[in-house]
Amino acid sequence: MNVVNSVSNPVALTNKVSLTNKVSLTNKVSVLTFSGSDSAGLAGMQMDSKVQHAFGVHCLSVLTAVTAQNNQHTFLVQAVGPQMFAAQLKAVAVFTPKAMKCGLVANVQQAQLIIDTQKKLGIALICDPVSHATNGGALNNEAELDGEGNSNKSVQNLLLAHSTLFTPNIPEAEKLVGFAIKDSFHIIKAAKALLKMGAQAVLIKGGHRLNDEGIIKDNPSTYSQDYFHSVQNQFWLQSDSINTLHTRGTGCALASAIASGIALGYCLKDAVVMGKMAITQGLLNAQGVDGEKGAVQINRVPDTQVSLPRLICAQTQTQENMPFPDIGDTPLGLYPIVERAAWLEQLLPLGVSTIQLRVKDLIGQALEDEICLAIAIATRYQCRLFINDYWQLAIQHGAYGVHLGQEDLAEAQIQQIRRAGLRLGISTHCHFEVAKAHAYRPSYIAYGPVFPTKSKDMPWVPQGVKGLAYWQKLLDYPLVAIGGIDLESAKDIHALGVSGIGMISQITQAQDPIAVTNALLAITRS
Ligand SMILES: Cc1ncc(COP(=O)(O)OP(=O)(O)O)c(N)n1
Ligand SMILES: Cc1ncsc1CCOP(=O)(O)O
């Protein structure tokens, strides 16, 4: 089934409330997990269970095999027999999992039963094709596990054809597509081939094997990058490489983190970003065990900016890898968003230090005149004026900055804005968009809607104060809260320590905009 297209609630197509909001105190959602047991406790079901627990999700555990392995050797692998496999499936049938995850699948019979279960439940299947442990030992080769003579390749082909998301690394993808993957073009070609073979989406884990030019090389490169491909979305997730020995269990952990995100109600592309964040943070926290090589350590929902990948898609323009200029030492504070320059004459004398001109109904000379007038007033009051959308006019007339939405990013010449020395603010509404904004290194990130808003049609679930708190904790960028904020809620939002509070209607529709602005300024200065 297609997570992206088949969710009945249209809101689920785009985003959900934050993780902090989403985890219910009285009931957990579950992920139906099919994996092997790893005697070293570094991968397999042991890792799946830990990761899902970290996300506040319950791990329903159907064991596919028992493996006797450590970091050096795989001693023995025994598939769980058909009777035991069926009994486990029967036992977990009382639950109503929200996603499925499979790792090591021992044989075609198991694969078929997993697929039958997925069809019956109609939930997403996140499939990590496991064939070898990091110690090099085969985990589901045909001789040991499949008495029917079916090869591992047929197990993977079967699962691939029914996966909502399939997450091979490069060697695993190479085996399935039948050609060598040597650069990023081959990765894209392989992703397309895997979709043709039936997967609804793939995430090819390039890991350390890609260098800056997208060419695979043997030495660890400066960053790791994974490629996501579905019919609707294609993007790279790029993170700085982490120098650690303790990398066991990353494949299992990634698929489990993504399945957890789906179970919590996030759409696939957000769950994939969350999964990548979990791995990066988990590698930074990784530890050895008794002096032996250890595993990625995921013990909480990812909550640091260093874990956030840079999301690069076709529309992302070449990066100069330079951040946009900062907004200075003074937080953005109260950030009114107005449609005419005349508002600046009213609000700036009150001490408003950041404002946005968001004109939606003018074109040509009238638009340019409005922008010029706003810049002149803002300059007089030394106020930080951001121009919404019209970046060329903002550059031409020397505005302080530009604010762009996600769609505008594709059309604007970002490098021109950067080279002209203007600040850049970017709107975001979910993990996917925050990771996309991060690739531009903007001056600030705006996140919303915090509450329901009447000022703009928005398909996004309002995040609430808790959702915003998650991003305020995570991001090092100055954060602007926006959407449905009023005098009362402004206090709670300010208390989170956000840099700015963006507002349209509370000021522009107020009976007494001056009084409201003064009251809001008192809050943001407190
Ligand atoms: C501070 C701030 N945040 C968000 C927005 C919304 O911008 P955008 O997504 O470009 O949508 P429109 O404003 O163009 O409708 C904003 N303008 N300012
Ligand atoms: C433009 C925009 N972007 C996210 S919410 C929003 C509208 C904010 O307006 P209001 O403050 O009236 O809710």
From TrEMBL:
One GO term (biological process): thiamine biosynthetic process
Keyword Ligase found: no
Cofactor(s) required, per the database record: Mg(2+)
Residue ranges of every copy of the Thiamine phosphate synthase/TenI domain listed in the record: 340-507
Gene3D superfamilies membership: 3.40.1190.20, Aldolase class I
This protein's UniProt keywords: ATP-binding, Kinase, Magnesium, Metal-binding, Multifunctional enzyme, Nucleotide-binding, Thiamine biosynthesis, Transferase
InterPro entries linked to this entry: Aldolase_TIM (IPR013785), HMP/HMP-P_kinase_dom (IPR004399), PM/HMP-P_kinase-1 (IPR013749), Ribokinase-like (IPR029056), ThiamineP_synth_sf (IPR036206), ThiamineP_synth_TenI (IPR022998), TMP_synthase (IPR034291)
Regions annotated as coiled coil: none
Catalysed reactions listed for this entry: 2-[(2R,5Z)-2-carboxy-4-methylthiazol-5(2H)-ylidene]ethyl phosphate + 4-amino-2-methyl-5-(diphosphooxymethyl)pyrimidine + 2 H(+) = thiamine phosphate + CO2 + diphosphate; 4-methyl-5-(2-phosphooxyethyl)-thiazole + 4-amino-2-methyl-5-(diphosphooxymethyl)pyrimidine + H(+) = thiamine phosphate + diphosphate; 2-(2-carboxy-4-methylthiazol-5-yl)ethyl phosphate + 4-amino-2-methyl-5-(diphosphooxymethyl)pyrimidine + 2 H(+) = thiamine phosphate + CO2 + diphosphate
Protein's pathway: Cofactor biosynthesis; thiamine diphosphate biosynthesis; thiamine phosphate from 4-amino-2-methyl-5-diphosphomethylpyrimidine and 4-methyl-5-(2-phosphoethyl)-thiazole: step 1/1
GO molecular function: ATP binding; hydroxymethylpyrimidine kinase activity; metal ion binding; phosphomethylpyrimidine kinase activity; thiamine-phosphate diphosphorylase activity
Pfam families per UniProt: Phos_pyr_kin (PF08543), TMP-TENI (PF02581)
Protein name, entry field: Hydroxymethylpyrimidine kinase
Organism encoding this protein: Paraglaciecola polaris LMG 21857
